[in-house]
Amino acid sequence: MRNALGSVDTVLLLGGRSEIGLAIVERLVRDGVRRVVLAARDAAGGVPPVIGAAEVHLLDFDAARPETHGEVIEAAVKLVGDLDVVIPAFGVLGSQAAYDADPVAAAGAVAVNYGGHVSVGLHAARRLREQGHGTLVVLSSVAGIRVRRANFVYGSAKAGLDGFAQGLGDALHGSGAHVMVVRPGFVIGRMTEGMSPAPLSSTPGQVADAVIDGLRSGAEIVWVPGLLRAMFAVMRVLPRAVWRRMPR
Amino acid sequence: MTSFLTGWGRTAPTPARLARPGSAEQVAELLRRAPERGVAARGLGRSYGDAAQNAGGLVVDCTGLTSWSLDETTGLVTAAAGVSLHDLMAALVPRGWFVPVTPGTRHVTVGGAVAADVHGKNHHVDSSFGAHLRSLTLVTADGESRTLTPGDELFWATVGGMGLTGIITEAVFRCVPIETSRIRVDVERTRDLDHTLETMTATDDRYRYTVAWIDLLARGGRMGRSVLTRGDHAAREDLPRGADPLAFSPRSLLAAPRWAPDGLLNPVTVRAFNEAWYLKSRPGSLVQGLAPFFHPLDFVDGWNRVYGPRGFVQYQFVVPFGQEATLRRIVSRLSAEGVVSFLTVLKRFGPGTPGMLSFPLPGWTLALDIPAGQRGLAGLLRAFDERVAEAGGRVYLAKDSRMSAETMAAMYPRLAEWRKVRDGADPGGVFRTDLARRLRL
Ligand SMILES: Cc1cc2nc3c(=O)[nH]c(=O)nc-3n(C[C@H](O)[C@H](O)[C@H](O)COP(=O)(O)OP(=O)(O)OC[C@H]3O[C@@H](n4cnc5c(N)ncnc54)[C@H](O)[C@@H]3O)c2cc1C
Ligand SMILES: NC(=O)c1ccc[n+]([C@@H]2O[C@H](COP(=O)([O-])OP(=O)(O)OC[C@H]3O[C@@H](n4cnc5c(N)ncnc54)[C@H](OP(=O)(O)O)[C@@H]3O)[C@@H](O)[C@H]2O)c1
Fold it and tell me: Given the DSSP bridges, would you call strands A177-184 and B2-5 parallel, antiparallel or unpaired?
């Protein structure tokens, strides 16, 4: 349960090795979370330690297998009770060139980046609605705010996810459960290894800090860094001919 | 009907379906059809935190259970759980009787008073509400109505059990005879914390009702300076001739504004209030009405709104006698941090009841209100929890809204025993509240 000072007790991270996800979990634990569930592919194969939690549980989870997602949510509830914060942090970036060459791989990535989030999100939402409380943290991306030619497979999945998350948040309005949409820019980390950082990039820690602030204040949308919000207000209305020429 | 509920501190609202039964049979009926997310009892919602909420489940508003009677020869009152102490007093006082224990507000139900085993200014001589109970009627998870007496384990799991053993529908308790509706009060001011503790230790036992209000914003040599108000029921000869000795018609005089901004209560406004209060409390004796003596806050309707939209937290703990060092450290830390609390009260507790989760134990209890938005509050209170637990003390569940399950377990040594009795009465876990989930009871 969320207490009077905004601290929570339990968190479920899907994509249990995600750098951003673990950075959020680490901060939640610092702020009082006692029980953590990490759901990851081949969980037994090892996940980084979470320091300071009273309980850390592992579950097997594959985002590409939506028929198993209901069981994963149920198993998490069995382990820790009510889910105070649920963070689906799985995702694959891939390269546009590779997707161009292999449309099957592109569809597979979209199934994780969009389809996996739809099924996890709906299952989690059902549980949060029953509980009457809890927050689903959705990791969208500015890549989906206006899709760019340079990564439109990934970007379009994020665009779908962003719309899905907003709709889900509206559907949950008045239920006591909330959806928080997080829109980072370029995050310097494992997912973007080897790429040169875009302007207004951030670190997983900075994204996590913003998520914690957002949870505290009950924000519905969080941009990281905050300046991206103003920047994308402009980007969104740039003429198509200009946008098309964006180098990356 | 689904409603968002909070406690008196107005923090952490959660939705629940509300039902308001009008009889014990209707209560039993609701329990037989208990939903998956369980059932919580609620009185007048004067607990500060999440004790009378049940996110996603059913909340049984007991205020529709209102019948009661008085046996004028013995002073025994038989009251349905939803009767408020306000209504009882309004009827009993003119007939020469007073409730055995009243908390700082009259607007609590008998059910809430039992479930929290509430204490009043007379704890050092009269213990808490549970000590005055003859019997209880409890509807348990199976829908059966049981009459419990102090010889039953389930009785003492229910007194102070925060509504988690069943729904109390009726209580029988002994009231005290009074000659007048007034209190003869002595007011004293103390210089600092040591002086406060000394004075209370030396002379509290001369009075039935005592409390100290501490100016937490006073620092340095004045840290812990207090106003002591201590009194007894006035006798007829204490009143001026011609006065109606049992007149009692308390009303709220003011309503707090419907909305107040965050930060209205800040160090500047609270320091000014505290200073004024300390100075206005002139030492001496006076005769006061029951309401201004026991329930000064009840004169302002909805005063909890003054804390603004983020609400506030009440922190009340007790440490055993002999652990004054812990009390001193906490008071000096609060004073050093400039914590904005304008209603800090200190009280000496006497012996507790056998209630397994009852709060009071012989020692010092301090209660303070703090705006929930105060910076660093979570960490500060966590540190206090640890100190209190180490000292063998505890935090009051009826006021708590932020403790962790682990600290709570460390503070309540009879938790395991209570759980066993509760599990016997409610094997399926029908009774659930947000507090019980948060504290993993
Ligand atoms: C201004 C103020 C001053 C206060 N001063 C004091 C004080 O001096 N001493 C003190 O001890 N407390 C004090 N309190 C706290 C208050 O007395 C308790 O929280 C009391 O339990 C509130 O009663 P309620 O009817 O509002 O119950 P609620 O707040 O509605 O419920 C409190 C608990 O009782 C349970 N409950 C309620 N009805 C039933 C029932 N019929 N059957 C089973 N369980 C039930 C609920 O499930 C919940 O766990 C104060 C509160 C306020 C707002
Ligand atoms: N990094 C950025 O620049 C950036 C920017 C904006 C948004 N985001 C989004 O933020 C989220 C977290 O990203 P991150 O930076 O933390 O990346 P990360 O460290 O690479 O984490 C992504 C995680 O997703 C998991 N995953 C991939 N496919 C999966 C599948 N089929 N089933 C289960 N798990 C799967 C991976 O698990 P394995 O360990 O098993 O491989 C990996 O742990 C992603 O949704 C990402 O799109 C990232």
Answer: unpaired
